[in-house]
Amino acid sequence: MRGPITEASASDGFGPGADGGIRPFNGRHLGLLVLLTLVAVGLRLFRLGDWSFWVDEAHTFRDVTASDEEFWRSNVSNYPLGYLLLRWLLDAGILRMTGEGWLRLPFAFFGALAIPALAVFARSVVGRRAALLAAGMLAISPWHLYWSQNARGYALTMFLALLAAFTAHRAARHRSVLLALVAIAGVGVAGAAHPSGVLMAAALAAFFAGEVVSDPALRRRATRLPALIAVGLGVAGAAVWVGPTVLHAAREKPDFSAIHLAQTFGWFLGPPFVVAALGGSLAMMLRAPRREASFLIAWLLVPLLALAVVGSTSFKVTAQYGLVVLPAVYLLASRLIVELADEIRERSTRARLLRWSLPFVLMSSLASEAFLYFAKRHGERPLWREAAQYVVAQAKGPIEIWSTNEPSIRFYLDRLSFWGESRAEIHIDGIAPWLFRDAGGGGAWFEQAREEAEEAGRELYFVLTEPELEEWDRDGAFDRALRRGAHQIARYPCWVGPKDMTVVVYRVPARD
Q: In angstroms, what CA-CA distances link 424 with 163, 243, 387, 396, 416?
């Protein structure tokens, strides 16, 4: 049974005010929002170019510098928005170079822009205080910070999905067909940045379905033939569009596992926020108007359910595909904080400490992880640049490098090869499981690579991360051959929670 909103919540709670309008931010709120936005901008620009490219960022460089013909033949042409944005900025001379910081800059911009957007649009859903608190969480969120400092489209996708979600909420409030169409188009634009943006379509479908069920007039309109035809065409169009990307992912990532999805989400969200979001969902169900409660709960749960189904049946799904639900997590956690604070009506010091205890725990957990992101974890990326440069510094002649991350090594040592102009003195290849299979095992392939390098007169190096190698070298044959026949000459530690992203450099000595 839905309980009454407390007096404090009534003055700054859910939905529009008594006059039917959305409660505006006062001067203090606006000052705080400006401060949060500045913090978000500063964090997203800080050391933006310092982190090494990981494999997908090197792929971004490859795709944005490819010819038009190559680009439109590639799989990423199914979600081209971020790549086209970078290509246009480079062609227009707005991005002056193709270094790490420049290619990440547009995504840092959209990542920072999400903070004021969340606060402004969410105040009509959870109230001003909770909206500002959620914006503060997003501003220092290490997970959002990582993708904002990443030359990939996830931060852009989340921003566009956020806009589509709140447009849908406004459409439901005003019973506006036009706004509903804008929201649907917004989901399509988000999906054009990355297929994970289409997950918002499932959330909004569930939300709109709830609106139709609860309103007899809408129910009659929704069952008319034109509406059913429009829905059918939309579903068919989405299937035709997203289908090739799903099939490609199923071929590339066949090791599907719902456990992997749960583990990565648990790590990147953090157990305190998982619990707070669930508590916020309960608070919304008990105390908020039905529309606001169903909106946020659908936003949180439906995409996660869709990912769980796909990750259990089709291909390996990681938490980054669910970044679109992060605003809902923070909004629900923030609404729980406000509800609990409003229940503590005393004005004593003890009461104030109680009010601030939960937000302090949650915000300090984000701040500590953000500190580690900059100070200890190298932007949560392996140190491929440092490892590649070390190999060149050690080499005394032509070199051959095999790596579990060939694209990044190529970016740092042989960038012109992306345009077909390889350096003769450097040969770079990627370690792949089929190499072991074709050679008759990992140990046999190691000896084959060694002999070929010697015949070509090249020094042989292996630059790799051990967890990736273990996925491909299931029987450990290559690892044993590598340890017997090569010397480990450098190690670049990088741990992110339980994940070891340490880059190890091996040199194979010449045989007498």
A: 49, 41, 20, 14, 11
Residue 262 CB coordination number (10 Å) = 14
Total number of domains constituting the chain: 2
Residues 348 and 494 in one domain: no
Element (H, E) at 508: strand 503-508
Same domain for 136 and 100: yes
Instruction: Report angle CA 485, 491, 495 to the nearest 5 degrees.
Output: 130
Which residue, among 135, 87, 80, has the nearest Cα to 111 in the 3D structure? 135
Residue 15 lies in a domain: no
Helices (H), 74-215: 81-91, 100-126, 128-140, 142-148, 154-174, 177-193, 199-214
Which of 119, 155, 132, 120 lies closest to 44 in space, CA to CA? 155
Q: Give phi and psi for 235, each to the nearest 5.
A: -65, -45
Report the relative pairing of strands 399-403 and 459-465 from DSSP bridges: parallel
User: What's the CA gap between 317 and 307, in Å, rounded?
Assistant: 7
d(CA 294, CA 194): 25
Instruction: Kindly report, residue by residue over 381-393, the tens digit of the pLDDT.
Output: 999 999 999 999 9
Read off the pLDDT band of 231 (50, 70, 90).
Answer: low
In a domain, 8, yes or no: no
Quick one: DSSP state of residue 502?
A: -
Q: How far apart are the first and last CA of the chain?
A: 82
Same domain, yes or no: 451 and 486: yes
- Provide CB contacts within 8 A for 54, sequence distance 6+: 381, 382, 384, 405, 408
Strand partners, 400: 427, 460
Dihedral over alpha carbons 255, 401, 69, 96 (to 10 degrees): 110
Looking at the structure, tell me whether residues 344 and 407 fall in a common domain. Answer: no
Q: Cβ(144)–Cβ(326) under 8 Å?
A: yes
Angle between helices 258-269 and 271-287 (to 10 degrees): 90
295, 169 contact by CB (below 8 A) = yes
Same domain (yes/no): 49, 141: yes
**Each residue's pLDDT tens digit, 143-158:** 999 999 999 999 999 9
> What tokens were used for 200?
């918002």
Record the pTM: 0.91
What is each CA distance from 295 to 23, 166, 193, 344, in whole angstroms?
Answer: 19, 9, 23, 27
Q: Are 86 and 103 in contact (CB under 8 A)?
A: yes
> Domain range for residue 335?
27-256+265-377
